[in-house]
Design a protein that fits this description.
Elements: H1 2-19, H2 23-27, E1 30-37, E2 43-45, H3 47-57, E3 66-78, E4 81-91, E5 104-115, E6 118-128
Parallel strand pairs: 1-6
Antiparallel strand pairs: 1-2, 3-4, 4-5, 5-6
Length: about 140
Amino acid sequence: MKDLDALRALPATWEKDWNNHNIDSLGNMFREDVDFVNLAGVWLKGKTASVKLLKMVHQSTFKNSVWTTDSVDVKYVKPDLAIVHIGWGLRGDVNVDGSTRKQKHGIFTWVVIREKGQWQLLTIDNVTIIEAPSSTK
């Protein structure tokens, strides 16, 4: 139960660090060899590359963004390995021209591993939920 609580707390830590734009703290959640596929489809390999890009976008696109965690679902693969799906919302991010983007929602899929008593992100995949086109008859 303690591990389940710790796993469910990870997205709250992400949300707090994101909203405070504290990317160094957010990066502490990553394993050194993390694989992170972001919303743009960029595959970041390793903690250093992931933190570097997140710092860059938090000085521009996501400078005033606000992250909300909508849902958390945990699925254990084995006692020290789990998949966590996080429903999220984002508002306040901007386009290159400075115009505000429309609020969006998405789903994170995290593979997390427990080493030395700590859960860390091993793999991150992020997608935006789009409205399905209406069917035509």
